[in-house]
UniProtKB/TrEMBL annotation:
Domain Alpha galactosidase A C-terminal: 322-396
A GO BP annotation: oligosaccharide metabolic process
Keywords of the record: Disulfide bond, Glycoprotein, Glycosidase, Hydrolase, Signal
Pfam families named in the record: Melibiase_2, Melibiase_2_C
Protein name (record): Alpha-galactosidase
Family classification: Belongs to the glycosyl hydrolase 27 family.
EC numbers: 3.2.1.-
Length: 405
């Protein structure tokens, strides 16, 4: 009985105090994350240039600065799973593998901060992290929050492997409570809805997390990227309505510049992540990225759509031509509207699509000036009654921004 009362009191405290109020992520967070490209490669003897280590993280941070990514907004340099030793120390604290992180996490965060960047780290709400090789935070939430704050960590990605999904609704707020208590602003990136297969209490998630993974892990293929886009098209439980300044639905990393996507598909992923107001976390080897992929990741017109301060997530407006064309719309500041047409078909020729202005929300009777979302070049002027004729490449995107006259 006493235990129950104590639990309820604690829960009440978390609900009261744990509401997210860290002032972070007013626009979608931008940065780089190890996982999709570098995985759990811990063998620095065999593969010293690609293993999860401070050398890799520092090298990527250097490229983020010298190659212009920081200047366009990429800020968080994030380490995913596989950075720690398999056991905690005698005080119950997590330990970064000293062979791979010889400066320690504090040394690494000093380096990252010295470059004007921020450091992200990964842990798991369960007993172990995914893969079961490393200790999770269960029973150590406060200790781990304090450790991360002492190390100067700026973002925590909190996973859900090896835990009970019914515990998330109090466990994630508890972690947010302890992060807040450290006094250090730490962006809280949760895998909560992913771990519950999308059937979640989004109000509670929005009150707890600065970003939350909506679905499956993205992989390096068009099928995978399209699978993520389908989750957004379906918009299960209207999750689009919860995204906005301070908290963002997260479709997972950008795979632009990796092995699996064509240039058209890279444009499509980047354009759709902008439409969705998604966090932009690149997972790519910045040492040898193709020039066209780099230019895409630094496209200021698309980044401006992604970072639009109103922060509304695009929703599916309609499907056309036997569901091969998806049309998404996103309201932007100053009554502008972004429209994306995505061609799911792999037939090897562009598809000609005709839409009426009013079909995609262009209702201003004086009409709109329309520009290409990637190039900012004029595509003409259209009325609500106008037909807009567009050619959309196979597995490609046409994205335009309409400004009312
Ligand atoms: C899960 C997450 C991924 C990544 C891996 C690391 O699969 O969804 O994003 O963090 O774990 O093991």
């Amino acid at each position: 009985m006493i235990f129950l009362a104590l639990t309820i009191t604690l829960l009440f405290t978390f609900v009261q105090v744990g509401a997210l109020n860290n002032g972070l992520a007013l626009t979608p967070p931008m940065g780089w994350l190890t996982w999709e490209r570098f995985r759990c490669n811990v063998n620095c003897t065999v593969d010293p240039d690609n293993c999860i280590s401070e050398k890799l993280i520092k090298t990527m941070a250097d490229h983020i600065v010298t190659d212009g990514y920081r200047d366009v907004g990429y800020e968080y340099v994030c380490i995913d799973n596989c950075w720690m030793l398999p056991s905690r120390d005698e005080h119950g604290r997590l330990v970064a593998d000293p062979d791979r992180f010889p400066s320690g996490m504090k040394g690494l965060s000093d380096y990252i901060h010295g470059k004007g960047l921020k450091l992200g780290i990964y842990e798991d709400f369960g007993v172990f992290t995914c893969g079961k090789k490393y200790p999770g935070s269960e029973f150590y939430l406060k200790t781990d929050a304090d450790t991360f704050a002492n190390w100067g960590v700026d973002l925590l990605k909190f996973d859900t492997c090896n835990s009970n999904p019914s515990d998330f609704e109090y466990g994630f707020p508890a972690m947010e409570f302890y992060l807040n208590k450290t006094g250090r602003p730490i962006l809280f990136s949760c895998e909560w809805p992913h771990g519950q297969h999308g059937k979640s209490n989004y109000t509670a998630i929005r009150n707890t997390c600065n970003m939350w993974r909506t679905g499956i892990d993205v992989q390096d293929s068009w099928d995978s990227v399209m699978g993520v886009i389908d989750v957004y098209a379906e918009d299960m439980e209207n999750f689009s309505q919860y995204s906005g300044p301070g908290g963002w639905a997260d479709p997972d990393m950008l795979v632009v510049g990796d092995f699996g996507l064509s240039y058209e598909q890279e444009r499509a992923q980047f354009g759709m992540w902008a439409m969705f107001a998604s966090p932009l976390l690149m997972s790519v080897d910045l040492r040898n990225i193709r020039n066209e992929s780099k230019a895409l990741l630094q496209n200021k017109n698309i980044l401006a759509i992604n970072q639009d301060p109103m922060g509304k997530q695009a929703t599916l407006k309609m499907k056309m031509l036997k569901n091969s064309i998806y049309v998404f719309t996103r309201p932007l500041t100053n009554s502008r509207i972004a429209v994306a047409l995505l061609n799911k078909s792999d037939r090897g020729t562009p598809t000609s699509v005709t839409i009426k202005g009013s079909d995609v929300g262009l209702s201003n009777q004086n009409g709109y000036n329309v520009v290409d979302g990637f190039t900012a070049q004029s595509m003409g002027s259209f009325l609500p009654t106008s037909d807009i004729v567009l050619n959309v490449n196979p597995s490609g995107i046409v994205l335009f921004v309409a400004t009312p006259k």
